[in-house]
Amino acid sequence: MKKIIILAIAALFSAGIASAQTMEEATEMYNTGAMMLDSGDNAGALTWFEQALTMGETIGPDAVELINNCKNIIPKLHLQIAKDYVAVQNTDMAVAEIEKTIELAADYGQTETALEASQLLPQVLLQAAGRLLNSKQYAEAAEAYKAVTEIQPENSTAWLRMGMAYGAAGNIEGAVEAYNKAAELGQSDNANKQLSNLYLMEAVKSQKAKDWAGVIENAEASISYLDNHNAQKLLGTASLQTKQYSKAITAFESYLALQPNAKDKNQINYQIATAYYNMGDNAQACTYFKMIMDDPTFGEYATHMVKNELKCA
């Protein structure tokens, strides 16, 4: 029995020595991490703190303080490393580190660090999306802005710029949806301006294809969001082509109201006069032909119409 007791005491003594050595090693790891942190080597410091934490968790109660210190600093280090990646525009690595920060900070009860990381993530994604948009990688930019809205559904700027990216990429349906969402979130003026321009560009495409019905549809959509002289002129031209004279006159008159000093004012008046003439409204046709009798381009024809065809008073 005595021999057994002696052996047990020896085993306990040996275990105590081993525990002390392990604690010493864990502390050395922690101190190495601290020194590397002081020297600015965040990645190196993180490795040592993680090793110290792992060893500390195997030690147990004797390592509680070391464990808590490691858990306090490790999420902060991940966040700082994320910021370092942001500085060199390495978005993928920055996002990975931010997500790791959020995960660990939540596990370790580091509320403030988790909040800071959560606020940083959409900012990083927004900046990356902006770089893609500026470099004309429109489809990629749209997806990047979409990632922002998945984190911050109320981010009106992200929705607005997503619309711009989709529009430039030719995804009209996606652009309209994004712009409408931006408008709902308080960006109505900017969204309506962008929507108006989007449909104006579609009207121009239709004009080049001589798709006059498409011109009318898109020009009217453009005007519905924001009245503009370019869309009114396109609407007037397409309506004249399709013999919708009343619509053409209204559009051309709106164009002149928005552009009273337009360089092509006499041409527009000629088109209005022609529309009235084709409608059989000679009185109004006379009024507009008289306005351009002195024009070097349209004057001769206008004078002929006034004096010979319409016999205006």
Compact overview of the structure:
One of its GO terms (molecular function) is molecular adaptor activity. The chain has 313 residues and is mainly alpha-helical.
How does this model look, in words?
α1 packs antiparallel against α2, α3 runs antiparallel to α4 (91-108) and α3 (64-87) packs parallel to α5. The radius of gyration is 37 Å and the shape is rod-shaped. It is mainly alpha-helical. The protein has 14 helices and no strands. Pfam families: TPR_19, TPR_6.
Which word captures the global form?
rod-shaped
Poorly predicted ranges: 1-18
- Secondary-structure-derived class: mainly alpha
Q: How large is the count of helical segments?
A: 14
Binned, the helix content reads over 70%
Strand content: under 5%
Number of strands: 0
User: For the report, how would you describe the main beta sheet?
Assistant: none
The sequence of SSEs as H and E is HHHHHHHHHHHHHH
What distance separates the N and C termini?
139 Å
The average pLDDT score comes to 91
Radius of gyration, in Å, reads 37 Å
Task: Give the SSE map.
Layout lengths: L1 H37 L3 H18 L4 H24 L3 H18 L2 H24 L3 H14 L4 H14 L2 H37 L3 H14 L3 H13 L3 H14 L6 H15 L2 H10 L7 H11 L4
Considering the chains and any ligands shown, give keywords for the structure:
313 residues, mainly alpha, 14 helices, 84% helix, rod-shaped, disordered N terminus, Tetratricopeptide repeat protein
